[in-house]
């Protein structure tokens, strides 16, 4: 049986970062890029360098540090965008410029105010320009699924003639259906004159919940690159989810006669990392990576799975990196056992980081009878979100009841200085946030707050996420503790520390690197 190789083009760092409320720092983008490299994706779209200096810096950092996958940068079809993209990609081992222009009449008339002939000329000229700097040029016809099919054939033929090595067919607004999109890919394969010289790629959005189905229909009709994001993050309803596409191709290999290069055992871990860093929670019933994806509730199902897992499981949790028998550590577990467990979970960390995590693990084990793999993963992921610490929480006290106003007092350390403050508020979390705000001495701008349990049980770890806003930028912070008020305070301070690292604010504290 001939198996076609499907390239995975991950755009978590570009389209995924356009998810409402998501704003990743450069070091967080690098963490995600490292996870994508471990997953063995073929292409990482690292960002849109012309969009902001922060985007430029993140693309340059990913290009310089990540070896293996091709690093792509997005550029509109104009010289300035392409120049900035190629500068950001300068240090990449393998670089791709991804340039795009809209092709649907709706976009031409209402957004670009250009004729089809003008768009055709600009697309061709931009690809020719990009080709002077890199061999690998991708061209996207934005809103392709609502464009005239013959115009698409014309423009794709022209850009391939100008040097495009990949032509991408985006369903920008998530409008198409599997049968229609499959037919479009077939039509392009049969009518773009020089299609044998380029890879056909698809990029589907999930507005009608069909992004993955549409991408798979495209694969069945000859597309050999799919664009996707971890956990399906992205603009509006998101993009096609990498984990769903990959596991569908893996599980139905014989049907699709296609395979990817992805190391599927990295899927679960990458999904959790992206969820922690972006603050976008994974719904429990999410396909492949949701908490319930492998849970069998009904007695009939449990009985079947116990006899033979094939009865109700079409894929095994181990195949995405979930161990069925998650080993439990406790307060008597030593550093060696902890380090071994980290290694088993796939973390290759520096000894100083392990030491730091081990003391956090010990604190946790004192409060929690059993420490599960999920707890350890949460400690590692939250550690990755920590930045230089202007302020550190020394202690807090909160008094709250249903009859009195909640009050909180905190002591923070900032460099050599200790600051104590107290406040009351609408409930314990509000009171502690207000006490912290008084202690740091400026208005923090809380936007949102979320709390979830990492595992089940009354002594479960609570993971708090906080979003704060300053100068039109959103900063997210995370905190972990078995005490949810402490988790919330830590998350708030983490967001404040990130804000202080990025903006000029009134503080006399010193940022201290925390390893
Ligand atoms: O959705 C879209 O059309 C895009 C393009 C830039 C590829 O993200
Ligand atoms: Zn998109």
Task: Explain how this protein is built.
The protein has three domains: 4-278, TIM Barrel (Alpha-Beta Barrel); 323-384; 392-502, Double Stranded RNA Binding Domain, CATH 3.30.160. It has 17 helices and 16 strands. It has helices at residues 26-39, 53-65, 79-88, 105-112, 116-131, 149-161, 178-191, 211-220, 242-251, 253-256, 267-278, 299-307, 335-344, 351-367, 373-384, 428-440, 484-502; strands at residues 4-5, 7-10, 43-47, 70-76, 95-102, 136-142, 166-171, 199-204, 225-228, 258-259, 392-399, 406-414, 417-425, 446-453, 462-470, 473-481. Helix 1 (26-39) packs parallel to helix 2, helix 1 (26-39) runs antiparallel to helix 11 and helix 6 (149-161) packs across helix 7. The protein is globular, with a radius of gyration of 25 Å. Zinc ion binds next to loops.
Short description, anyone?
Helix content is 40%, strand content 20%. It is α/β, with parallel strands linked by helices.
Helix coverage percent: 25-40%
Rg (CA only) = 25 Å
Please give the alpha-carbon distance between the first and last residues.
51 Å
Ligands, ions, cofactors: 3-methyl-2-oxobutanoic acid, zinc ion
Counting DSSP H or I runs of 4 or more residues, the number of helices is 17
Regions with little confidence, pLDDT below 50 for 5+ residues: none
Number of domains: 3
**CATH T-level topology of the largest domain:** TIM Barrel
For the sheet with most strands, the description reads: 8 strands, parallel, barrel
